TrEMBL record:
Protein name: Hydrolase family protein / HAD-superfamily protein
Superkingdom classification of source: Eukaryota
Record GO biological process: glycerophospholipid biosynthetic process
Cited NCBIfam families: CECR5, HAD-SF-IIA
GO cellular component labels: mitochondrion
């Protein structure tokens, strides 16, 4: 968009401001309306903003440019990650502390966020949540009322994991969780109530135990140790084969776990595994991000020139060509993809199979490019 366009748009906004003084009240968390822009930014986290828990690529400085001098958001942006394991509010707080900015819960879109849409279907059904962090807390936060983590669930079944005695770590639950666990024990009769669905919320920690127990749940119709039954539903928060952490080369992700589990299940069961996976690169994830970005801008209902449809460009900044760039490309206009070299992609030029609209070294360069192009420095 040209600077002239932005200028005339600002004039329209000034006119509308007289008509809609009340809307200022709605914009307290957003910066001054005359700075309203017609673009939004989606940032991947791992390999773009953070490596492990350490900021990378000048991310704190880059993100700070999206706020005004008083700390209010002036450019709408979200974090669009396939990662997860903790409720969005907790992740927002963690990101705020790591990056020195004020991240709100609505700005955090994680791989498992689409699971919220399945609450109507499974609200009171018995479901199992798998993965690092607090997978059951994530599901409870979304409104699932009858959920156990796979740690809790497996602990009911003696000898379900024959390798448990050889594992040096402990999955013993801390006191607070233990109380919840006992509540769950009363609520769920795991020996007679069938598991209706398993949700892989975040990267599984104990692959051998989780593969074993998921096979038990899914082959038996939700009652381990019993006869064969129809497969309960299975949902994965993402299908990333690899992702970047602080280690120099990529680490195996949830997609790698899915391949391992699916191979074993299909070799040992007469029906092929049925499952649904979410996360990038599915266009639905990007479409949802568009809605959230638009919602971050305070509404001006009386101004037809300045509503949600005025967004001209959505930028995706990612490090993984097969996930971030592919997803933005598949979603198409008005998404513009920017590939950084701080994570999975480390090539000199562009990626062969999923070329980005722009390749830069760091997220700081990406934000600089966007703000210059949009005359919003
Ligand atoms: Mg990444």
């Amino acid at each position: 968009m040209s600077c002239f366009h932005l200028f005339t748009k600002a004039l329209r906004q000034n006119q509308s401001r007289n008509r809609t003084a009340f809307s200022f009240l709605l914009s307290r968390s957003f910066s001054h309306q005359s700075e309203r822009h017609s673009f939004g930014i989606a940032f991947d986290i791992d390999g773009v903003i953070l490596l492990g828990n350490a900021p990378v690529g000048g991310s704190p400085a880059a993100l700070s440019r999206l706020y005004d001098g008083t700390g209010r958001l002036r450019i709408p942006y979200v974090f669009l990650t396939n990662g997860g394991g903790y409720p969005e509010a907790k992740r927002a707080l963690e990101l705020s502390q790591l990056l020195g900015i004020n991240v709100t819960t609505s700005q955090v879109l994680q791989g498992h966020s689409p699971f919220k849409r399945l609450v109507d279907r499974f609200e009171n059904e018995f479901v199992v949540a798998v993965g690092k962090g607090e997978p059951a807390a994530v599901m409870s936060e979304y409104g699932f009322k009858n959920v156990l983590s796979i740690d809790e669930y497996a602990s009911f079944f003696e000898n379900i994991d024959p390798l448990a005695p050889y594992k040096k770590w402990t999955t013993k639950l801390p006191a607070v969780q233990s109380a919840k666990f006992n509540e769950g024990a009363r609520r769920n009769d795991v020996f007679s109530e069938r598991v209706k669905a398993a949700f892989i919320v975040s990267d599984p920690v104990d692959w051998s135990r989780d593969i074993q127990v998921l096979c038990d749940i899914l082959k038996t119709g939700g009652l381990p140790g019993r006869n064969v039954g129809p497969q309960p539903h299975l949902y994965f928060a993402n299908d990333d084969l690899e992702y970047q952490t602080a280690f120099p080369s990529e680490r195996l992700g949830m997609g790698a776990f899915r391949i391992a589990f699916e191979s074993i299940f299909n070799r040992s069961h007469h029906h092929s595994l049925e499952f649904t996976s979410f996360g990038k690169p599915h266009p639905s994830v990007f479409k949802n991000a568009e809605i959230v970005l638009q919602q971050l801008v305070p509404p001006l209902h009386e101004d037809p020139y300045n509503n949600a449809q005025s967004f001209k460009t959505f930028y995706m900044i990612g490090d993984n060509p097969a996930v971030d760039i592919r997803g933005a490309r598949q979603t198409g206009h008005p998404w513009f993809s920017i590939l950084t070299r701080t994570g999975v992609f480390k090539g000199k030029g562009n990626h062969d199979k999923f070329p980005a609209d722009l390749v830069v070294d760091t997220v700081e360069q990406a934000v600089d490019y966007i703000l210059t192009k949009e005359c919003a420095s």
